[in-house]
């Protein structure tokens, strides 16, 4: 009736602290079922991120169908992309209560429902709700568990596993662009979205593969329902240490809450034992009350852990470089998303549709993006190379490509620029490393969640802004110029912070070097 702590994925310390016997290392760590988790996450990236990067095909269909402005129509794709990332910290609340598997399955159903309902859209505002919000939230509910589960199953090979799973974005963009283009040409965009909704139901299968590391029955070794003072003290001190390590909730309030929770469960159990001689209806009521009590305790604990994980990160904002990193993230992701949404229409305006049908420009970005992730990762791992410098150089290259793209009006010129965009955007694989260097391992999860949310805001407003500029100037040139300049402002914020001089991200500290 409730999620186990293994399924939730939080670290509650060693078993010895709560009076249970030590267990052997799980054979699925870095092997076994762990590779099925990587395969599941790879498929999730194909079905979610790949589909979102191919929305430029549907954006053209929506422009012709509803005859609305480009700025208004672009909100459909932006809502779906932005909400997928923005809701990440809030999806953590569902994971803490239901576990990654159940959250992903529900998200798969919600995502498919959003696609299917969008096939019956009568206007763009209908698509805002069905595709932008519904499918966007569903995507977020699958995307976050896919990333979290890979981190849970891998320790020594975590970087390799995350790299392999995220390459699904590039493969997905290439495959989904071709698939949506074919479906729209053969069956129309409405039937294409209906078919895509059916395909998205495979996200439920991906969620079903995300089984927890340990059976749910093992939760009993963490929760001691005995009324003995010794066992209750162990549980209280262990839970207090866990919450206190997050730096948010005080020790005394947690002790009172834990004591109240254990008292409720203990009293219910006592009544149940004493009432065995009562009627069957009374026993059913007591068991129902006990189940509700257990569920309430689980929800309260899950909410406390979620709150401490995200809203307990206020100290992160005292790091000036991290604040500059957030500002950078607010401008950076839109420069990567805008080409995917508006390139198909730019190609149509330049009368390059015949060449683009043979090999779409968005597919070029997607394929080279895969190699960019791998190559930039290998370069940054070299002992003589700073990850921070590789990260900045890739960003500078991407800015130059965004600013020069409007100058290219031939297919070959656009293809070269798109290839450079795909390669330089491979810095996405370096973002977790750079974030860890800025805030440390302890705050990595909280900090990276904030960065992802900032990227979501960037994806939310970027494409509509580009469409709005086009509606005013009748050109996409100024959209790319403004996006590139804002992107450059974000990079400048990273360069002018004095904290960078104290410790260069990507370089090991003296203590780390000694270890």
Automatic annotation (TrEMBL):
Annotated membrane topology: Multi-pass membrane protein
Tell me one GO molecular function of this protein. monocarboxylic acid transmembrane transporter activity
Keywords attached to this Swiss-Prot or TrEMBL record, sorted alphabetically, are:
Membrane, Transmembrane, Transmembrane helix
Membrane spanning stretches: 33-55, 75-95, 102-120, 126-148, 160-180, 192-210, 321-341, 361-379, 386-405, 411-434, 446-466, 478-496
Give one Pfam hit by family name: MFS_1
State the GO CC annotations. membrane
Which SUPFAM superfamilies does this UniProt record tie to the protein?
A: MFS general substrate transporter
The protein depicted here goes by the name MOT14 protein
Compartments reported by the entry: Membrane
* Source superkingdom: Eukaryota
Identify the PROSITE patterns for this entry. MFS (PS50850)
Domain (Major facilitator superfamily (MFS) profile): residue spans on this chain: 37-502
Q: Does the keyword Transmembrane helix apply?
A: yes
Which InterPro entries does the UniProt record give?
MFS, MFS_dom, MFS_trans_sf, Proton-linked_MCT
């Amino acid at each position: 009736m409730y999620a186990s702590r293994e399924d939730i994925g939080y670290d509650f310390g060693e078993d010895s602290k709560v009076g249970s016997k030590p267990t052997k290392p799980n054979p699925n760590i870095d092997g076994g079922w762990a590779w099925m988790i990587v395969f599941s996450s790879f498929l999730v990236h194909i079905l979610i991120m790949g589909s979102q990067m191919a929305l430029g095909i549907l954006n053209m269909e929506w422009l012709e169908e509803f005859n609305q402005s480009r700025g208004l129509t672009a909100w459909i794709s932006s809502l779906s992309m932005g909400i997928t990332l923005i809701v990440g910290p809030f999806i953590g609340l569902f994971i803490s209560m239901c576990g990654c598997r159940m959250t992903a399955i529900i998200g798969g159903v919600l995502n498919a429902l959003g696609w299917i309902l969008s096939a019956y859209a009568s206007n763009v505002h209908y698509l805002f709700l069905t595709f932008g919000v519904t499918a966007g939230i569903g995507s977020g509910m699958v995307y976050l568990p896919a990333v979290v589960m890979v981190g849970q199953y891998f320790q020594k090979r975590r970087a390799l596993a995350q790299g392999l799973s995220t390459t699904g974005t590039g493969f997905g963009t290439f495959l989904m662009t071709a698939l949506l283009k074919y479906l729209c040409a053969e069956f129309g965009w409405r039937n294409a979205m209906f078919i895509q909704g059916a395909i998205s139901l495979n996200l439920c299968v991906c969620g079903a593969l995300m089984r927890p590391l340990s059976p749910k029955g093992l939760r009993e070794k963490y929760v001691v329902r005995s009324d003995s003072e010794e066992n209750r003290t162990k549980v209280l001190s262990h839970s207090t240490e866990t919450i206190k390590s997050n730096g948010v909730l005080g020790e005394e309030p947690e002790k009172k809450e834990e004591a109240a929770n254990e008292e409720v469960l203990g009293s219910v159990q006592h009544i149940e034992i004493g009432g065995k001689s009562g009627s069957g209806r009374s026993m059913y009521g007591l068991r129902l009350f006990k189940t509700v009590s257990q569920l309430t305790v689980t929800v309260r604990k899950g909410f406390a852990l979620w709150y401490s994980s995200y809203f307990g990160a206020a100290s992160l904002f005292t790091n000036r470089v991290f604040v500059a990193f957030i500002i950078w993230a607010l401008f950076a992701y839109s420069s990567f998303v805008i080409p995917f949404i508006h390139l198909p229409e730019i190609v149509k305006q330049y009368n390059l549709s015949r060449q683009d049908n043979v090999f779409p420009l968005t597919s070029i970005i997607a394929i080279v993006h895969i190699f960019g992730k791998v190559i930039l990762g290998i370069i940054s791992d070299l002992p003589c190379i700073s990850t921070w410098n590789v990260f900045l150089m890739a960003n500078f290259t991407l800015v130059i490509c965004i600013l020069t793209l409007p100058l290219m009006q031939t297919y070959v010129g656009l293809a070269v620029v798109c290839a450079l965009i795909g390669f330089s955007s491979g810095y996405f694989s370096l973002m977790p490393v750079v974030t860890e260097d800025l805030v440390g391992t302890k705050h990595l999860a909280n900090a990276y969640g904030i960065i992802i949310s900032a990227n979501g805001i960037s994806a939310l407003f970027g494409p509509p802004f580009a469409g709005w500029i086009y509606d005013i100037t009748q050109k996409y040139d100024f959209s790319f110029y403004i996006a590139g300049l804002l992107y450059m402002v974000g990079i400048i914020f990273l360069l002018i912070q004095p904290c960078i001089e104290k410790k260069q991200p990507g370089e090991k500290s003296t203590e780390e070097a000694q270890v």
